[in-house]
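Morning F.,

Quick status update on the modeling queue. The single chain you submitted on Monday has been processed. Sequence for confirmation:
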Amino acid sequence: MTLPTLFVPHGGGPCFFMDPDGGPPDPMWQPMQSYLAGLIDSLPERPKAILLVSGHWEEAVATVHTGERPDLLFDYYGFPEHTYRLRWDAPGAPAVARRVAALLNAAGFATREESERGWDHGVFVPMKVAVPDADIPLVQLSLRADLDPAAHIAMGRALAPLRYEGVLIVGSGMSFHNMRVRGDQATAPSAVWDEALSDAVTDPDPAVRASRVANWTALPNARFAHPREEHLLPLMVALGAGGDARARRDFRDVVLGWTVSGYRFG
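Structure tokens below.
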């Protein structure tokens, strides 16, 4: 069985867990939470491991987390005290991490290993919703600090064999990420950006799709949507790993005035 690859929105900080008594999130975030909660059941089979690329980890070279029991890195600020005591205790997957490094090395990418860094909120916030029992091992892979879109698409291509080995490849970011604009200021331009991005991501020709998404700054409102593109780069990895598979928009909603989408390849 072949697994798809995914690009998912991870929300804003610990947005799904703001109630200290474990109640539902702000209604604005409920559609995104429901989408994330249904991810595993939407797959053709339950993955044996997850490889996740977050918009919150950058290194000079692609870096693979090899830890067996990573802690959590609470890399958000100004939220209620209980959100700094959240737990998501899934195991790491060192053997899968070594396989990731080997595939990248074989494709000519320099890699590094890291075992001490905690999983950032681009990992544990969406995964705590998607895998609440924390019973699927996870490996985190960093972005490259150069944020080269073509390189990240090529990294994804190198990792595509994992799809046939029971590993779910997930890019975790936000399709729109401009923290300086909210509400009416963002509504119309983010919708235009989202339609253009979605048209590029779902182009039926995989080669054209990759070219259009790599050239994302040519899309309307690109730098309005992403003054800095670290939250978009996980999409490139998911797209590259998806290869020739059919691409579709898997999720769309409006939060904070932003139109936000998720995508599936395969």
